[in-house]
Amino acid sequence: MSDSAINKVGATTGNWLDERLGASGVVKGFSRKVFPDHWSFMLGEIALYSFVILLLSGTFLTFFFVPSAAEVVYDGPYTTLAGQHVSEAFDSTMHLSFEVRGGLLMRQIHHWAALIFVVSMIVHMFRIFFTGAFRKPREINWVIGMILAILAVVEGFLGYSLPDDLLSGNGLRIAQGIVLGIPVVGSYVSFFLFGGGFPGEAFIPRFYTLHVLLIPAIMLALITFHLILVVVHKHTQYPGPGKTNSNVVGFPLFPIYTAKAGGFFFIVFGVTALMGALFTINGIWVYGPYDPSPIGAGAQPDFYMGFLDGAVRIMPGFVEFTVWGHTVSPNIFLPTLVLPGLMVTPALLYPWIEAWVTGDKREHHLLDRPRNQPTRTGLGVMAITLYTLLWISGGNDIVATHLHLSINDITHVLRVIVFVFPPLAYLITKRICLGLQRKDREKVLHGRETGRVFRTEEGEVFELHAPLSANDRWLLVGFDSPEPAQALPATDSSGVRRPGGALEKVRQKISKFYFEDRVAPVTPAELAEAHHHGDHEEISASGGGDEKHAISSGH
Amino acid sequence: MSTNDPDHGGDGVALQEGDLPARFENPGIPEHQHRMADTDPKAAKRAERQVAFLFVLSMVGTLVMIVGYFAVKMDHDLGFIDYLNRLELSNKLLGIGMAISLLGIGVGAVHWAKTLMPDEERIDYRHLQRGSDEVRAEAVDMLATGVEESGFARRPLIRNTLIGAMALFPLPGLILFRDTGPLPGKYLATTFWKAGDRLMLDPEGGPIKASDMVLGSVAHVLPEGIEEAEHPLNEKAKAAVLLIRLEEDLLAPESLPGAHGGIVAYSKICTHMGCPVALYEQRTHHLLCPCHQSTFDLTQNCKVIFGPAKRALPQLAITVDDEGYLVAAAPFSEPTGPSYWERS
């Protein structure tokens, strides 16, 4: 087609759409909207695209999957299971995997995409956390993201329960054990959830409706809102020359991001397809149908359930007790209900906690370098450490068999280090951040190392340092470094007691915890001072060319 | 451009001694560096060809997938191994074809954007999320007018009854879930076992003679007739039992009344979360639950010696019938399986 023909078709279509939808206004408003560029901004994209892949592949699966616990006899081509009594759910999953062309591929794509979905959400959230992208005005989006992550885990668990195989059945049995462990109402909740005793026949159709309709619909709505807010707020950007809190530097949505982000969807889908083609996942034919009696050793849930499983594994059993004829099982509800609550709540509230401590009411669109927020970064690494240790606990049997260690020893050790390592990780991370900040200061004040070593006539040896360019320097000095909140006198100037004094004291304490150890960015005056010192040495290192501004730190 | 952004206090303009600013100036966007394809027509042509090649590759991938779909037939007459090989081939052809088809488009589009579309950075300006003071005042006015017009504040009778109605109306929504299941009743406290039930091998079926249980042997057993129960899986989830024979003098005294010779039967359903406690370590006489590693000691009446479980595995008292087959001497004397509130 010639250019003029394309233009003509475009003009006709455009006119048609505009006269019906006012499309020209939308195009004018959005097509050249600027988005900043950074690899870490793609993490959320991966999550979004995985969700789309899940919808597409999942829809295909629903055409073959039969959500029913009714018993049938397996007589398909996987003859190892021939003659076994299985549920229609298991039978249809076997049929879908072995007899529908592309069925196995779609199942494996669906499962891999689910794992990629959760991983990318978690990593995306840590990117948001460490760079401070949750700060005003994005607190709501942070909460939406957390809810999405929790829903994704629930959705994943429901999904892998559906094929009704031995592995998922035992996972479900554990879930029912958790429900039974809820004080007072546990057995009632379990009976309502499963329509009677475990496993019963009701859970497959019920979980199916939750898995394919209710939860995806909620997630889709939340994702839509999440993305609308990204547009409303305009994307955050990393600090750098020319980037300010009141601009967005980047590339236009059309054509650059249409091509890049659109292309990236195909890349994520392509990689997922490749995984579905090459790596078997959730081979239910190996496990067989669910039966409450048999079980395999070394059974592992999908990775995102691992930390909960780990918490359960390292929880000592002696805490269970009976009182007035009732059994109370903290060994069950502490790790499975209380602990996730304790982990999620502070994370959910963190934007408000930090804003309260700093007293900062401003909008923030420039991201932090993690080192410039040592306490926040330390807390984040502390959370990651706790999560990782719990996750490792969830594989304590795998660790034991692979490292030839006693599972009891591993469990005892993990029981201690889940409490010891996270605070240690906090301290170490904070120290590393402060060290990096000092290194940044050093670099600004004394320039970068050139690798050229000089010896003066007096025999003094030093390395020449070259000053940073204004652009390089800006990254190291252009950040805010909050100071601890100053104690206000208990009474104001007219001698009246300040309201909220006790809370204010708490705030000051936390503020001190956050900002007491701080490394402030170099000021122009400090740099001038350093230059002033440096000039003396420059004379002794008389050389030509680029040493003109060289500054020594070699003494 | 000031050092800090204008919205953030503008420390940058405050001057210190010697007229140096308190903060550094933002140096502004660095000069744009052109790419090869921007300046060299040959490089641009090369990039164009690379993009087109990737799009062609995608077409090839799509063809591979289509051909793979029709060429590899899943034929039921094939033997087991051949069938599995055929399935693997089909899965690989379809998946790799699909991957090439998708990656060709994706990598092509990204390469196109990165090499040939303009890469000069553009700037948009942000504005505060909050509306201007005038707009806010107008909005407040509108809401106040609306509240006034509705009479919500002036007519407390309407307001209070509305609040009451809104508070009550979700209740039926909760009540509607009542019929999602029966009440637990005695369900969790009872099992399929009753006195005189033969111990049947699981899964192969068939009764067991006491004499068949040689020293050190283990059998998974279920009560006779469980397959005919209304919900066999539900019953199994409570009634599965492990049968083990060990030297009689190793057994704890409290195990002996329910034992037959050195043969003991214990619930296989973990008292922690209900997984089958299916791993028996013969040397130590420990039973291990593979889910969370709760460990039960057979020689101590299946007391918990490690892990997150609290209660011992309940023992099923056994004896032999007239024909020498092992039978339950009595039903379980306590609930099997995980703990729950009503359990005393």
TrEMBL record, chain A:
It catalyses: a quinol + 2 Fe(III)-[cytochrome c](out) = a quinone + 2 Fe(II)-[cytochrome c](out) + 2 H(+)(out). It is an enzyme of class 7 (translocase). Its EC number is 7.1.1.8. It comes from the Bacteria. The chain crosses the membrane at residues 46-66, 109-130, 142-162, 174-195, 207-232, 264-287, 374-392, 412-429. The keyword Lipid metabolism does not apply. Residues 529-555 are annotated as: Disordered. InterPro entries: Cyt_b/b6_N, Cytb/b6-like_sf, Di-haem_cyt_TM. Its cofactor is heme. Keywords: Membrane, Transmembrane, Transmembrane helix. Residues 13-239 form the Cytochrome b/b6 N-terminal region profile domain. PANTHER family: CYTOCHROME B (PTHR19271:SF16). This is Cytochrome bc1 complex cytochrome b subunit. The lineage of its organism: Bacteria, Bacillati, Actinomycetota, Actinomycetes, Kineosporiales.
